[in-house]
Amino acid sequence: MRKRFGIVIALVTVGLIGLGSLALGMGRQPPAIEKVEGRVTSVDLKDPRRPKATVRTDRGTSIVLQMDAKRTDVRQGGATLVPSSLRAGDWIRAEAEVRKGKYLARSVRVELPLPTKPAPKKPAGTPKKR
Questions:
Q1: Could you report the per-residue pLDDT of 86-95, keeping only the tens digit for each?
Q2: Quick check: is 119 in a domain?
Q3: For a disulfide at 36, which of 32, 85, 91, 94, Cβ 3.0-4.6 Å?
């Protein structure tokens, strides 16, 4: 009788612990991931380990991207950069976690500027204007 009672108490205890942890986990949601694309308008390097970049999107909104020197993957072309190398005027595409209204950048891609086409040359046989 005591053995059965001990087993029942152990099963009830394990069940309650499992339900408690399940209830705690239900309140948490994974962070939302958003894609941010736009031009960097300013960079805040007050804390070099956690630089911030303000990005002006195509929709006209400004978003502050917080970066982590160790966790944020910043690339330009095939090269890996440090987050503090971002400059105002850079065009970026970023993936960021949104937590409590703050954007924490996971990855940032700095777009290479498109090469400009040289002005067309005039054919050799055209007369010059006087």
A1: 999 999 999 9
A2: no
A3: 94
